[in-house]
Amino acid sequence: MAAMSKIATGNGHGENSPYFDGWKAYETDPFHPIDRPDGVIQMGLAENQLCFDFIKKWLIKHPEASVSTAQGVNKFKEMALFQDYHGMPEFRRAVAKFMGKVRGDRVKFDPDRIVMSGGATGAHETLAFCLADPGEAFLVPTPYYPGFDRDLKWRTGVELVPVHCESSNNFKITRDALEAAYVKAQEANLRVKGLLITNPSNPLGTILDRDTLKNVVGFINEKNIHLIGDEIYAATVFMEPEFVSISEIIEEDDVECNRDLIHIVYSLSKDMGFPGFRVGIVYSYNDAVVSCARKMSSFGLVSSQTQHLIASMLSDDDFVDDFIAESKNLLFKRHKYFTRSLSQVGIGSLKSNAGLFIWMDLRRLLREKTFEAEMELWRVIINEVKLNVSPGSSFHCHEPGWFRVCFANMDDNTMAVALSRIRTFVLKNNEAMVPPRKLCRLSSLKLSLSRRMDDLMSPSILSPHSPLPQSPLVRARN
Amino acid sequence: MVAISKIATGNGHGENSPYFDGWKAYETNPFHPTDRPDGVIQMGLAENQLCFSFVKKWVIEHPEASLCSAQGVNKFKETALFQDYHGMPEFRQAVAKFMGKVRGDRVKFDPERVVMSGGATGAHEMVAFCLADPGEAFLVPTPYYPGFDRDLRWRTGVELVPVVCESSNDFKITRNALETAYEKAKEADLRVKGLLITNPSNPLGTILDRETLKGIVKFINEKNIHLIGDEIYAATVFMEPEFVSISEIIEEVECNRDLIHIVYSLSKDMGFPGFRVGIVYSYNDSVVSCARKMSSFGLVSSQTQHLIASMLSDNDFVDSFIVESKKQLFKRHKYFTWSLSRVGIGSLKSNAGLFIWMDLRKLLKEKTLEAEMDLWRVIINEVKLNVSPGSSFHCNEPGWFRVCFANMDDHTMEVALLRIRTFMLKHNEAMVPQKLCRRSSLKLSLSRRRDGFMSPSIMSPHTPLPQSPLVRART
Description:
2 copies of one chain form a homodimer.
Chain A lengths: L5 H4 L10 H9 L12 E2 L9 H10 L14 H6 L7 H14 L11 E5 H13 L5 E5 L5 H7 L5 E5 L11 H13 L4 E7 L11 H14 L2 E5 L15 H4 L12 E6 L11 E6 L2 H10 L7 H11 L2 H28 L3 E2 L7 E5 L9 H13 L3 E2 L1 E2 L10 E5 L5 H17 L7 H7 L29 H6 L1
């Protein structure tokens, strides 16, 4: 028997969770408008597909952005040979500028602090290697992106301790929650080295308000622990209130902060929709961390071919300004359409203004307030409604009944089909009325029971007097 | 005081070695034919720059290989979104086919076993994470590529135990050397998990003969340890004897295939280090599966996968490229080694790689590491060439230097040779017996025949043979 490592034979890769069943269902029967109109629609992938026409137009006008076109080929050799882990200066400048613009130019980023990594996946692992020893821990507010369990823990040996956030206050990160988690870690004999926040939040789609951010910074300073801000969704804030970045908070007069504790993870995977290009960024205010992360970047440098393309694209100010505006515009429209359509059938979600998904509230559809019930409901959604959505438990949510549903990874037609299936499902399973008021509080748009037809919805399917939904599992038990 | 990790504060990144002084000298004063004609010439970087015109032609003829050309842009969206860690099927097929062609189609590679990584750097780290626990060890024959100390050990906690090879038998990897290293590991309480060989060798430029390879496979099978074959220089074998890959040997001998893994990359064979195309190819299904999951930390950019898939699936291009590359390397190697031998500088007889293993032992003031460092500083500061001292490759004998020859144009090569000749002439004190010839790939000729490559005004066939410049300094 050939012995492999413990890391290889263990489960740290995270793929054995039941969460992956939805993916398997999708992979065996993926939706296609013509070939598989009854297939499973993918709503579990946080991709930004709304702006590609815009980008394509720019590409056609800028053939020099590629080293493989006639216009760019004279740079081919130089690019193909360039493996300096500092990264191309033009690339770093363009990314730093982009990061600034995404924050409304309220802060400036230093190109010399831009360090490359193998996507945000690689960035997180690199920071964990830089900041913590095996057995040490990071605090992470729940619900959080499931990939963190692998990225931060698998090969590093670092632990994650959840900071429990509750739906009762919209999953706010409170001082109490932070302190509770810190104490829990201490009781478990885990030395806390840092706090990882994702802002805008995945899966919530919300942003942290200024006070919360200041509290967070105050907390990490007191405890002398690192703060890692994953701002991968920064440009997806499509609506008020305006995004506030950690980079801005640390500049404020009333905020005292040791900058050696501050680090940002970034990527072009969500904001630009380029996950395939593996453009991960570690931005640290700590010189020693920049230096170490840069050496580690050898394990996951950005392809020089891609650095060249991105440098061209992101140094075009007009393109960038227009892109940021256009992207927000399309995300806003899609989000509005989606949430409004859902509320019309009585499905609410956490009020959100960012991200590529909504945090859908299906608590009242649960047979009982348990995670088993959530899993059952999830399987119904996958197998009957034929949508792959992500159950809240996979995000370590403290409370069952929440689902993350992505809305930006499909075209309008597919969105319409998905909504149609949801409506059908809701109608099919209505048994009794459910008081309308509770749902409205969490919905971004008030549920309207007036006679006004929304021309977004097909009149034949839904009348304003349709009874509100109830768990299909209730029906099954009768 | 802000606490960061032990990994971050330690020296595992390997950059504090004196080896980097040469790099600093180069960086502060790099050679440029017109701007800095007296600058340091970089001969410490194993890059393959000889085939770019060839590649460029293909790129111009195939605009569809780019996602940004009018012909390719319709694939932009699909490619930009593609982040599946299985990798694009066309990419894996093209790489598997290329690997087969580089081995003369004597073996076939399965695209399903091709796993991506962040360059060979990422591939080595990934394999270490898959096969060994912190504190366990790999055996590595010396001399070896310095990067292994970082790639295999830094973040993994894995140890490396050298298999000491001697110049007396041309650094052959003998059974004795392997057993000795294995014993040494045991005495140090290190559990050996695998053996890492680089074939063709960096820094030697030689290939392993069939017997040695069989001996190695037998050894790892007996000990039930893994064999990692870094074959990153496979296509740089420019001369007989023909390259024999591990992938071929395991078809000939009895072997548990679960122990066999190959690391590959396009950085040396194609000259594309910037594109970060690293490959882990394992015959062990569990390792393939684990490595594939780990590849998320260093996937190949889909933009690059697309380009490489196009390029390497063009059979005519690949066949012509492989031939052309060998030819260019052969010519450059021949010119370089022949020119060196004319001034009495020998090197290990080699038929592969992008460098030679230069023998400057007789120029050492004394047979010590310090003397090697002294000589090295002279080469950097006086001769103005950045070469790599053997000690940085863990060579157990001082006096050897790795000198790269494929990372410059013809003119720069001339300048480098001129400097070497000048240096050797300047420091000649006495004749040195013709012992030098034995190791040189071309015999030193002392006849009257003038060679058109060499400027007659600088060199006459009766020029005395070189001696250590340091001897002069003492006089």
